[in-house]
């Protein structure tokens, strides 16, 4: 996969590796560390040229040098092993191999240089020097040495990459302006035919922008750009697409320039979730601007390119989320079912004059709560280390779909028990088994299983929900449900208040199906963001976040299937109810 960022990084590494290897020759000659950088530098050149035989030789040389090191970095060992494995594949994937060698070079750079983790300061002198480095490019354009101008610009981009990080972190506005001007220079140098005056003007504008920043004329901070959103940039793409369709390439170019300028402020939102989409966007935005600025652009080609770019970015702008209401009904439903089991057990013991056996019920309750709590802590620890970027979205997607399957099972069971006779038969059957056996400990076991099952289901549901709900919403929902459950528990257990079973189960099953519908959409959407599933948009339909509906075929079809399943369950339930009434009548 060829992309601008990767090329810039590679040029930086090549330049740095060469300089550093010369500098460290006398320091590390004894252990061969001095040869690691030039060797991996050779590998970078060879992988770009797709010279796999030479690359294999360089990697084997690197491996021998690495084995000589006393203090080995496990990260480099892993990167080297992966590089060799990719090279040994029958069908070598150039893009993956190229990126892997870049990672190996970067890790080697950190290892040899002992890179400091302290934050970098903006080097204003280097920025001034960088501005002066643009003069040879201007001269090459004026003398019509276009190839030389492009090579010099590549060198400039490499130098900029080396110092851009602190600027991006401290002043996104200035960073965005500089990146935009650099893109305009690339566009002007790639025009065919070249327009020298326009190219010189683009370079001079970039030069003035750099000088202005170095002199403190471009002020700003990241907080000022907090209102910039990916959804807003997608609107720029929509306007650019519409302008291209109408042959208004001036407006299309302006929209793309705005997109490029604001892109650095939201790029992290995409980069942390999909490296592939990020790389494609970095490449496409410049290519589209080049097309709109050409002498004879094709409206259909430009519009299609913008549309594809927009389709790639739209899943990242649609923020899937859950509310306190969703969090409330999950805990409320699961908790109320557990309370019903406990209340029924206690009432049964009271009716049969076995109140002395209540201790077994409370013991089972305590054990179930403790094990559920331990499971929650364990899963939280296991998932905490991967709740970032792509891994986070994948966890949300996979866990959410597991929760959907469980919800469908629970919902079907709830629907089945919505008849009071069916519920009484279910409870009495379970209790009669216990008392007939005379095994008091089984009271604790029945209680434990009921509580732990509800606890495990609740944990799974909340794991699928957690990445897409604000902490305050989660706490409000859980806290409210807990308070309501405490009141209901007191009324049922202490005051022996009867709860209307049928309405409860009907309402609970309806809400559980609603949440399952929402989980399905949000979970599949999360997997689309991580490129696990493709995206095929359905034109003309809006995003409905409350229902977890996203207008793609991948999300809509499973949700339609879910509705069909719910309808089938309802029809089956009605059929059984009619049969039961017929038997009672006869």
UniProtKB/TrEMBL annotation:
Q: May I have one GO cellular component term?
A: high-affinity iron permease complex
Compartment(s) where it occurs, according to its Swiss-Prot or TrEMBL record: Membrane
Q: What transmembrane ranges does the database entry give?
A: 327-349, 361-385, 397-414, 441-462, 474-493, 505-527, 547-571
Instruction: Check the record and name the InterPro entries matching this protein.
Output: FTR1/Fip1/EfeU
Give one GO term, molecular function aspect. ferrous iron transmembrane transporter activity
Where primarily located? membrane
Q: Name one Pfam family in it.
A: FTR1
Q: Where is the signal peptide?
A: 1-29
Keywords, alphabetical: Membrane, Signal, Transmembrane, Transmembrane helix
Family indicated by similarity? Belongs to the oxidase-dependent Fe transporter (OFeT) (TC 9.A.10.1) family.
Q: Which PANTHER family match?
A: IRON TRANSPORTER FTH1, PLASMA MEMBRANE IRON PERMEASE
Task: List the protein's name.
Answer: Iron permease
Species of origin:
Halobacillus salinus
